[in-house]
């Protein structure tokens, strides 16, 4: 059988998933291997060094840098409060003394006889890493983090903004082609992940944020609405760090795009369940997809699980989404994988595939124009 590798967009009802949760700096791990933990639970913590401020003591007191030790009232390692005197000149006959006060609360890190400057460091910034998903700790990465395994549903999107969040799935529409409007959202969606249809209007995103929703999942989003909602034009490298008060995932792309039937039905079947959601997206090397993870209930199951660590080959019978014009956003099934190279409009010769669309039309496309929808 013809076989080729192509990127896959995963929409899996039941799978095994592992996540590494790491600290930005070495720190303390507060869970043990084998622990069953919740998504909100802290698994590791550390302290980031505080910001540094430089104080030109020699310049402020009009002394030579080599004389700085004679005027310092605080030594290296000493703590100081904001506006506390940390250096004082001798003055004339004990009079007309000049003082230098600390601009921050912190600690004196160094005193230089070469530059006459004092470096002060603000208090350390505590950082805690939460589990993000319900699951079992299967490995401890010494002083760095943990690896967590869970079993449940896993859905990837095309594009997203906003970082990690946790909430319960709530359906705002009954039709994957329906546009999410402000009238579909009320206060009952507070702390929920709202599932819409083909698109979310700008006003709907504003309403979702106003009622305190954790996230919004729709088929598509208009570029201008996204820019207006964020207040600036988004870059092309990586998303996920936006501070917009809500996480947004588009499962199909930009514009008004009907959410794929399987994706919508799976989300509908998960209504009311807790989900871990991350809008981080990277479209360059090391592709990162926005995601929804819904852990399964803790009970024995005979469902087949899938391994997400392996790449997926393109084979006949697979469902694919077309990711370039003129059929952008359409879903189809692979019905043929010709071995011979074919000439496309650009005159280049590429590998192609034959796809039967949902409306039964048959089209031939470059293999790079599709991605697998893994089920």
The secondary-structure class comes to: mainly beta
CATH class of one domain: Alpha Beta
Number of DSSP strand runs:
31
Strand content: 35-45%
What about the largest sheet? 16 strands, mixed
* Total helical segments: 5
Question: CATH topology of one domain, what is it called?
Answer: Glucose Oxidase, domain 1
Summarize the structure in words.
The protein has a 16-stranded mixed β-sheet that branches. A four-stranded antiparallel β-sheet has the order 6-11-10-7, with no helix packed on it. Strands 3-5-12 form a three-stranded antiparallel β-sheet, with no helix packed on it. Among the domains are: 60-112, no CATH class; 158-289, 3-Layer(bba) Sandwich (Glucose Oxidase, domain 1); 313-374, SH3 type barrels (Roll). The chain is elongated, with a radius of gyration of 28 Å. It contains five helices and 31 strands. The chain has helices at 57-61, 68-71, 202-211, 223-230, 261-269, and strands spanning 4-5, 8-22, 28-29, 36-37, 42-48, 52-55, 79-80, 85-88, 99-101, 106-111, 118-121, 125-130, 135-141, 145-156, 159-161, 164-171, 179-180, 192-195, 199-200, 215-221, 247-254, 274-278, 291-295, 313-314, 319-322, 331-336, 342-343, 349-350, 352-357, 362-366, 370-374. It is mainly beta and 375 residues long.
Summarize the structure.
By secondary structure, the chain is mainly beta. 10% of the residues lie in helices and 41% in strands.
